[in-house]
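Inputs:
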Amino acid sequence: MSLLRSPLMSTRRSIVLLVTAIAFTTPALAEDITGAGSTFVYPILSKWSTSYHAKSGNEINYQSIGSGGGIAQIKAATVTFGASDMPMKPEDLKAAGLGQFPVVIGGVVPVVNLEGVRPGQMKFTGPILADIYLGKITRWNDPALKAINPGVPLPNQQIAVVHRSDGSGTTFNWVDYLSKVSSEWKAKVGEGTSVNWPAGVGGKGNEGVAAYVNQIKGSIGYVELAYATQNKMSYAAVRNKDGMFVEPTVASFQAAAAHADWTREPDFYEVITDAPGKDAWPIAASTFVIMYRQPKDPVRASAALTFFKWALEQGQADAQSLDYIPLPGSLTKQIEAYWAKNFAVK
Amino acid sequence: MYHPTVERYRAPAVAVTTDSRERNDQRNDRLFRLAVLGCALFVLVALLGAASSMLWGAREAFSTFGWHFVVSTDWDAVQRKFGALVPIYGTLATAAIAMMIAVPVSFGIAVFLTEIAPVWARGPVSTAVELLAGIPSIIYGMWGLFVFVPFMAAHVDPWLDTHAGALPLVGPLFRGPPIGLGMLTAGIVLGIMVIPFIASVMREVFTTVPIQLKESAYAVGNTTWEVVWDVVLPYTRSAVVGGVFLGLGRALGETMAVTFVLGNAHLLTASLLQPGNSIAATIANEFTEADSSVYLSSLIALGFLLFVVTFVVLAIARLMLRRLARQGGVAA
C-alpha cells in the first residue's frame, strides 16, 4: 500500500517527533502557574495572563477543558488551580482539602437567529425558554411568544433548539435557571453540567453553539455574552424574578451580583441565577477558582494567589472590556479574608 | 583488507560439508520466525489489552445496567441512566452512508487511474488522492460545519424533505426540518474522508493485475467495463475488500469530523436529516465532564462497544467475502 509508505506520512511523523522534542526541552519556570477548567472564564484568564506576564514575568498556563475536567484535574493535583462554573459543595471541598472563591461574574444569554430581528429585540420569559427547550413550544409564532413580543416579525417557522453537546458550566447555569423557573423542567430534566436534552442539536463548546445558531435559520441557543458579542449574534431580553424585561448589560449583571448573598453559605457556595432585583439579569453566573488549602507546591500556589489578588484588584478593567462583570468591592474583601483564613500560603 | 572474523568464519564453511550450513540456516530461520511471531503477538496483546482494560473500566456500567445498556436509548447524566442504542445506531448508520458513497467513488477513481487516464496524469492524480488522506479530520469537520452544512440546509435537505419524504417505505428516512446537521451530512463527510484510503488501496492492487490477462480480455473484444468487472476485480478481490475494511474501520471510529456535523443529540429517529450521535462523538464530547463514576464507566463501556461493533462488522464482512470466494470458485 503506497499510502503507508508515502513521503507525507514520514514527514508527518518527523514533525510529531520534532514537536515532542521541543515540548520536552522547554524549561519550566518555578512560577509557571497552571490551571484548567471552565471554558466560560477562558477569554478573561488569557487576557489577564498576557497583562500579568508583561507586569510580573509570571505565566499562567490555562487549559479550557471544561468545568468538570477542571475539578478532576485539581483533585488529581496536576494543576495549581481548577476553575469551575459550578461551585463545589462545601462538604465536597472539605473532604478533598480544597477551597474555592469566585473570580469573575458573567452571564449566559439566549441568542436567536431570526431574519429581521435585531439584538435585544426578542423577549423571553424563563418559563417560555423552558418550554422551548422542553420541545413544548415548537414554532416561532407560538401565541405565548407573540404575546410578549408585539411588533417583532415572528415567522411561522420551526424553532431549532441548540444546546451544548459537551458537559459545561455554561449549561449548568442555563439549566439551573430553567429548573428554578419551571417545575416541569426540574422534574423532567433537572440540572447538571450535561443533561438529557428533550430537544435540539448539540454544539461543542460556546463556539460550537454560536456556529450552529449562526448557520441554522430559526434557531435559538445559549452562549456566554462575550461569544454573542464577538459573533454579532442576536441576543434576547429575559424577564427577571421581579417581572422586568432586562437586556444582558454590565449594569444588569452587576445588579444580579450585588443582590446575591455570598455569606449565606460557606465557601461562596452560591449560584446567582434567577437573582432578585429590578435590574438583575436572571442568568448571571460566576466562575469559581478551586485550590488546595494545603498545597503540595506552595511556591506555585502562592504565585497563583498573588496573580488572583492582582486580577481581583487591578484586572477588573480587563474583565469589563470582555463583558465580564467586576466583582463588587465588598466581595473582593471577603475573598481576601477567606484566603487569609483558609489557605496555608499567602 | 584483512578481517580476521570473516576469515575465520569462511574457512571452515568452505571446508566442511553443507550440514553445518544447513544448521546455520535453520537457526537463522528459527530466529526470523520468532521475530515475526513476536510482531504478530504484539498486535494480539495490544488488542486484548485494549479490550480487557476497557471491559474493566466498563464493569460498573455493565453491572448497573446489564444487557439493558445495549438496548436502551436513555442517556441522562442527571438521573445517571445510560444506554448505548442511540450512539450504536448513529455509528452504524453514518458508516453505512459513508461506505455507500465511498466504495463506488473510490472504485471509479481507481479504475480511471489504472485503465483510462493518460499515463502522464496518473502520478499527479494518485499523489493528490494520497494527500487527501493526510488532511486532519478536524479540517473536514470545519469544512463540513461552515461550508457543507449550510449547503445541505439550503439545498439538499428541503429537496429531500419535499420529494423523497413523501415516498412510501423510504419516506421516513428523509423527513425533517432543514437544519443541515444530521446523519446524512455526517455520512457524506465521512464518505469523502475515507475515499482516499479506499481509492489508493484499490489503485495499488489494480496495478498488480498481469497485463497479459487484461490484454487477452481486450483481444477477445471485451469492453473496459467488462475487463474491470470480470478480470481485474476477481483477481484483486481480497485486497479490494481489505481496502474497504480499512475505510470502514476509519468511518466507524471517526470522531472530530462527525462531532461537528452530526448534531450530537441523543435521539433515536428514523430520519437521516435529524441529528443523532455516534459512539466516538459521544466519548469525545462528554469524557471531560463526566462527573459521576457510573457516567465515566458508561463512556468507557461505549468505547468497548465500539470495539465489539467494529469486530462484528468486520467479521460479517469476512464471512461474506468467504462465501463470495466459494461462489467464484464454483463458477470458475
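DSSP finds 13 helices and two strands in chain B. Flag for discussion at group meeting.
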